[in-house]
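Reviewer 2 asked us to include a model.

Predict the structure of this chain.
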Amino acid sequence: MTYKTKVELALDIVKHQIAIGTRFHYIGADGLYGNSYWLQAELDKLKQLFVLEVHNDQYVYTQPPQIYLPEKQGVKGRQPKLYKALGEVREVREIGEKIATDQWEKIRLRRTGKGDLNCLGYTKKVYVWDGSSSYYSERILIIRVTVTKDGKREYKYALSNAKENEFTTEELVRMQSQRYFVERSFQDAKQEAGMSQYQVRGWLAWHHHMVMVMMALHFILSEKVLFKEEMPLLSAYDVREIMLNVYPRKGINQQEVMDQINKRHEQRRIQLSKNKGSS
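Predicted model (structure tokens):
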């Protein structure tokens, strides 16, 4: 066994999925991975499109930087081996906070239980340098802004190796926002499939537990797909309620359980209709 960082493990996962023929359009990740110049460079080598979030203090160059080796000082001086760069470098939050109002693009991300989720989007070609290489990399900076409940603006930043004009601003912002569904999957796994409810002392038992959770989630997804026409609002919670209250218990009124689910769905439809009307 060898020690590997999360970033190294992430690259191993990507390589494994490529090796087994998994089809995917692009790679997304949070700021822990996006701030790794090494991971970005490795994904470039694999010719894989990525949209990686970065922290708001990530530095980028607005123009191609001039990378050079300083001249040695004096006749007996040593030849410098560390590269330096010249150019305007800025934190991504500085760029985000100075974008003019008319440069933002209004984007409808998705429909939620509380109505449409809208945001503002902005993209810009930038350049990144890892501080040690003799080359820089061209990136697309993606900035997404949503308004919180208290009226404050929430900024999210990402870098992509997409070519300029290869995707629209809306497409890139949507790609950046797809990680929501990954987090939602973990939420359902923990709340409805017992992902965090394990008591084990070894990795084998932990892996067994996770496999069972994945099988449960796969079943829930298959039920949602199977009944998407007649019950489009069917949730993981609904499927769990049916499994707990109908199948293992004798004498339970199945129609009563379904009536409760349909009542919840109707309340959600009413709420969606109100939100749509107010927007």
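The chain has a mean pLDDT of 89. The radius of gyration is 24 Å. We have added this to the supplementary material.
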